[in-house]
Amino acid sequence: MMRLSRLAIIAAALMISAAAQAQISGDTVKIGILNDMSGLYADLGGQGSVEAARMAVADFGDNVNGKKIEIISADHQNKPDVGGAIARQWYDNDGVDAIVDVPTSSVALAVQDVARERKKVFLISGAASSDLTGKAC
Known about the structure:
single chain; globular
């Protein structure tokens, strides 16, 4: 699981830097880890996913294509409205370039809507609803 998270972070950084260089917020690729850090799914990801992401960034040399990589994190509390609000805050005000993780399907659907509206990157690594790749895609 940690290896997958680390690979996802590196992939996100490369994708953002190479494909959307003009859209990167300043000189930093900012990646938000949004998952359950206090509830039922905290042991599956939680702070472990955040630490794995930080390790991946360190392994990658803390930058991609000359841009610094920064990891931020938040707890969506398994609530779609909380996850959607965090995504809006991150994309609109905090300069987040991509959101990753979000293992809860209901929250992933809410975040996917925000990402689509903002034309931002959202990498889903654990949510399993077929709606994410079907009617809500």
